[in-house]
Design goal:
The structure is a homodimer. The first copy, chain A, is mainly α. Chain A has helices at residues 8-24, 31-37, 42-45, 52-76, 82-103, 105-117, 119-142, 151-161, 176-202, 205-213. The two termini of chain A are 40 Å apart. Chain A binds chain B through residues 153-154, 156-157, 160-161, 163-165, 167, 169-170, 173, 182-183, 185-186, 188-197, 199-200, 208, 211-212, and chain B through 119, 153-154, 156-157, 160-161, 163-165, 167, 169-170, 182-183, 185-186, 188-197, 199-200, 208, 211-212. The structure holds a DNA duplex.
DNA sequence: CGATTGAACGGTTTATATAATAGTCAAATT
DNA sequence: AATTTGACTATTATATAAACCGTTCAATCG
């Protein structure tokens, strides 16, 4: 399922298709154009991909794999506290979505079309991001900044609360800065909620002041 | 702008149009049908409404006015604490949106079409709901359950955090109960965030236990 | 004279015909 | 035998013509 299973020819096909997808969009790219770019016949494309939509799916998988890698990099920042990593995670996710929406419209259009026909891809992607988020929550729990018992459930709740800032349907309504300020406000509130729960569980007042300092 | 400014004839037009909008949808309703229902000519409709879209706008305004009234009723429940009212508000808003999406698909379609051409209506509607929400926040601040200084900003943040549960784009993804549980989780976290801020501001531990009890 | 009509206009949707494309497979190629 | 081909089919998209509908307004009505 990941992009690594592709042999050389499949990679060439995907690369040719990607170029055309980005430039002309999914609908305006034909199988014979892709075949010509690869110096092969249309029939032969089907030995490497079951359908055109599967080429698009692989294209999106690669794009989103890169996104998750970027998000995962947040985990490694040793100079950032778990609370700061939570903020970094969502601000980066917002920035990635906002940028892609604004300066790669064809890729956005392709994603929309694919996801309407392959909803499972969206679920997998959300789960992959959820695993990163969950690791941040675990780090915070180890550090006793957070006090979380249901990691999966809390991850889902965080994704819900930040949904507005990751759903492109809204990106035209406001400029980046205004939306980023609102997102920071949501994260502030979430972090205070976590601080409250940590204080309740571990019971010490220094937890409160620690969270306040953040 | 509100529905009360309408005279008898305009009300009859709106009523005939509403019946057809709900039954056949906006696109499948023609001005001559509306005129015939009211025993008048098409030309005469334009003495009461500038355009067909304005009839649709009035239709939506009436619907949404009722919704805001229902939400405002939450404010009056004297047996509910501010925290409980906040929960009631969002659960009711979610239920209203979910129900309308599922059993009045034509009304939903009409709303979408109108809002794409009259975005200002959505802004007004969000502001009207925001005023109710803001009153809940004030009640909570008076009761020292919350400690909010920027009511407008906090209102916006709450609307952002609950956006997923009010945006119909997602309603096919999950069943009502599952989504309601998630929404409750988001509200739990928000309320704990408010409790934390209240404890920080008013400084007493009994605030923490009070919020815990909720 | 104000209120109302309905034919006329222009823009848009719909229906139809035509062209292009995704996907298949028997034959050709290596 | 495994790979590749390209003509072929069924489906989808595009182009064109016809019907429709929102809107206007000069003529009619009360």
């Amino acid at each position: 399922m990941p992009a690594e299973h592709l042999d050389e020819t499949a990679t060439a096909i995907l690369s040719a298709a990607s170029r055309r997808f980005l430039h002309y969009g999914y609908g305006k790219t034909t199988m014979s154009e892709i075949a010509k770019d690869c110096n092969m016949s249309t029939g032969n494309l089907y030995r490497y991909f079951p359908s055109k939509l599967d080429i698009a799916e692989m294209f999106v998988r690669v794009l989103r794999g890169e996104q998750v890698e970027n998000l995962r990099a947040v985990l490694q920042m040793s100079d950032r506290s778990p609370a700061e990593k939570l903020r970094d995670f969502f601000l980066l996710k917002f920035k990635i979505a906002y940028d892609r929406f604004h300066d790669k419209p064809k890729a956005y259009e392709l994603s929309s079309e694919l996801l309407s026909q392959r909803p499972q891809v969206a679920v997998e992607w959300e789960n992959a991001e959820g695993r990163v988020l969950s690791e941040i929550l675990q780090m915070g729990t180890v550090a006793k900044t957070f006090a979380i018992d249901d990691f999966a459930g809390t991850t889902k709740i965080l994704q819900d609360a930040a949904y507005r800032f990751t759903s492109p349907a809204v990106f035209h309504e406001g400029e980046f800065e205004a939306l980023a300020i609102e997102l920071n406000g949501v994260i502030d509130l979430i972090l205070d909620g976590f601080a409250f729960r940590a204080a309740r569980k571990w019971g010490s007042e220094n937890q409160i002041s620690k969270a306040q300092a953040n």
